[in-house]
Write a structure and sequence with these properties.
Layout: E1 4-8, E2 20-27, H1 30-39, E3 45-48, E4 54-55, E5 60-67, E6 72-77, E7 81-87, H2 92-101, H3 120-123, E8 126-127, E9 130-131, E10 136-143, E11 149-153, H4 154-157, E12 174-184, H5 197-203, H6 211-225, E13 233-237, E14 243-245, H7 246-255, E15 262-265, E16 268-270, H8 273-279, E17 286-287, E18 290-292, E19 299-302, H9 308-326, E20 335-336
Helix pairs in contact: 5-6
Length: about 325
């Protein structure tokens, strides 16, 4: 365990923004994490996981603690279900692939999402009609101040759309060190109706898909729409899909009959943010090295040397134009620092 001064974080955030940390340390065990927290008790700390859901707009004047805990295991299983646990530093997609290889279902729609396991519950990551909370059983976290261990159940996490208690009441108070899921071993409940999964399966001539087939379809769709962060800096979906009232949607639909939507409840309608951004004229837009991806307007990208501030300014410009045209205020999905 080594503390490094003025460490560049360019390789530790998927936007590839070149900012530096006042101090940087990677921890590989809970014991090492507690030791670091004791040493940095009186100073500011910044918790860093996979760096996939953040936009860094300035140097971090704090000790950056990189959570790099590894390991995954089957905790227990029956003929019907398997309970599996993954450490916070495990790559999310690789963990999903590990589960699928063992025949465990429930996470297949969440394939190819960037980031690590430990940050997934904070955001309640989701894709193609499935959210992390659907398979989540519990997570173990360490209190930053007291170093006490606490287990959070799904109910205690207060999951919402791209939201959890860790983004609200307990923001900055806990560090998740592992996450446990309950997955199916047979009679998998496949969700293929959202997005273009059914179409992707039909193209492959698959009529009775397996969980692996669904995963492959999701990966194919995401690869076609989303750039590889290793090639083109990005953080996946930059904005949340807005949810508006049925009354507000009725007014909007009268003006824009072609607008796509998803019914959330009797009085809530979800609008694809990517559609709003594209039809506001920003798909493929570029200002210097900050831009909007040509295949998916929901994704902001760094073409090389864009600063976090430049990407942030572009996002504000998009928010302003979408509000002007549609009277909808987009909210960032990424965390901005």
């Amino acid at each position: 365990m080594e503390f490094v001064s003025n460490k560049s974080l360019k390789e530790h955030n998927t936007f590839g923004v070149d900012v530096s940390a006042k101090k940087f340390v990677a921890v590989h065990s809970v014991e090492a994490l507690k030791s670091v927290l004791k040493k940095t008790y009186a100073s500011e700390i910044f918790i860093l996981g996979g760096g996939s859901n953040m936009l860094l707009t300035q140097n971090i004047d704090a000790t950056v603690v990189h959570i790099d805990l590894k390991g995954k295991e089957i905790v227990r299983e029956t003929d019907e279900t398997a309970v599996v646990c993954a450490q916070a530093g495990e790559n999310w997609h690789q963990f999903v692939m590990w589960c699928l290889e063992k025949g465990f279902g429930g996470l297949e729609n969440l394939s190819f999402i960037p980031g690590n396991v430990g940050t997934a519950p904070i955001q309640n990551i989701g894709a193609y009609g499935v959210e992390l909370k659907d398979s989540f059983l519990e997570c173990e976290a360490i209190n930053i101040q007291t170093l006490e261990r606490r287990i959070f159940t799904a109910a205690e996490c207060k999951f919402g759309y791209r939201n959890s208690i860790f983004k609200n009441e307990l923001k900055g108070q806990y560090i998740i060190v592992n996450v446990t899921f309950s997955l199916s071993k047979k009679n998998h409940q496949l969700n293929t109706s959202y997005g273009s999964i059914d179409s992707a399966l039909e193209e492959e001539g698959i009529q009775n898909p397996t969980i692996k087939d669904v995963s492959n379809a999701v990966i194919k769709i995401r690869k076609a729409k989303l750039p590889d962060p290793k090639i083109l800096g990005n953080s996946g979906s930059f904005f949340k899909n807005p949810v508006i009232s049925a009354e507000a949607f009725s007014i909007l639909q009268n003006k824009f009959p072609e607008i796509p939507f998803y019914n959330i409840s009797a009085n809530e309608i979800k609008i694809p943010a990517g559609w709003l951004i594209e039809h506001a004229g920003y798909k493929g837009f570029r200002n210097g090295d900050a831009g909007v991806h040509k295949n998916q307007a929901l994704v902001l990208v760094n073409y090389g040397e864009a600063t976090g501030g430049q990407i942030l300014n572009l996002s504000k410009e998009i928010i302003s134009e979408v509000k002007r045209k549609y009277q909808i205020v987009l909210e960032p999905e990424v965390n901005i620092f």
